[in-house]
């Protein structure tokens, strides 16, 4: 195990033991849940900055406008719209589709500037209620809505998966992740697309498996798969972004078809489990990689995530320092 991960795991144990840290985390949650209009603008600007950092780090995910080449993007969980807004401003001929929970159902407001809204189509939909595959059970009473046409076309140069369960939506996180992955697998271009996906807890087996999948689907070149924690993000939290380039292009289409089929099956299973809870179960993602494959991926996984763990550790250390807690000597 890398030293970065060892340090982080020790610090995470301290987080659970330190009541000041626990109350700090719950204060942050209350602030996020009761966002005022000013705070919504603040988050919008912050998200725009985060995407700029992702773009700079990954050199680049958004090209400047080129009259000979369209640039289309799909932004899942797009509101308030900071990411889309950055893309529309950087590439002046880009066009995009955003999907986000309707503010009337508790989703974030759509704050994209009116001057660029003509290049952006917003679809207010609950992604967990989209019929992203054909359920085995009857369609009539499944409570789902058909996928809009925009989510069935293989035309996006860039696909963002940033839909994130709000605290007022219980028990939907796994379904939200799976549905976004299915939409991504259905909408990449034959020439390959860039995928930016929010993930968390890089050390867990399920995240390691998702990174393995992105590695299998991305181009066979250096830096086709990256893990990055923007410094504008909540640095104490375990979230980060995976950036994968060339997803689904060339020979990788075979892998893509395999993953799509299995994710659709998992989605159907999730629907059938309505009453028994819909969190990920330990073997739900086992189809992505066998234990042997995961072990072989181990070294790459540690290298890929070292900076993510380091950034989170440094943030936790400075938070503890602000509480005037004494550090253990070995950290
Ligand atoms: C972290 S925010 C995304 C911020 C966005 N990337 C930006 O640039 O401003 C997560 C978004 O996911 C949306 N969301 C949560 N659950 C959803 C669902 N079931 N369907 C669609 N959107 C959802 C939330 O409303 C919120 O707008």
UniProtKB/TrEMBL annotation:
Q: Which GO terms describe its molecular function?
A: methyltransferase activity
SUPFAM superfamilies named among the record's database cross-references: S-adenosyl-L-methionine-dependent methyltransferases
- Gene Ontology terms: biological process: methylation
User: In terms of domain of life, where is this protein from?
Assistant: Eukaryota
Pfam families from the entry? Answer: FtsJ
Q: Domain Ribosomal RNA methyltransferase FtsJ: where?
A: 68-205
Q: What is this protein called?
A: Ribosomal RNA methyltransferase FtsJ domain-containing protein
Organism (species):
Cylindrobasidium torrendii FP15055 ss-10
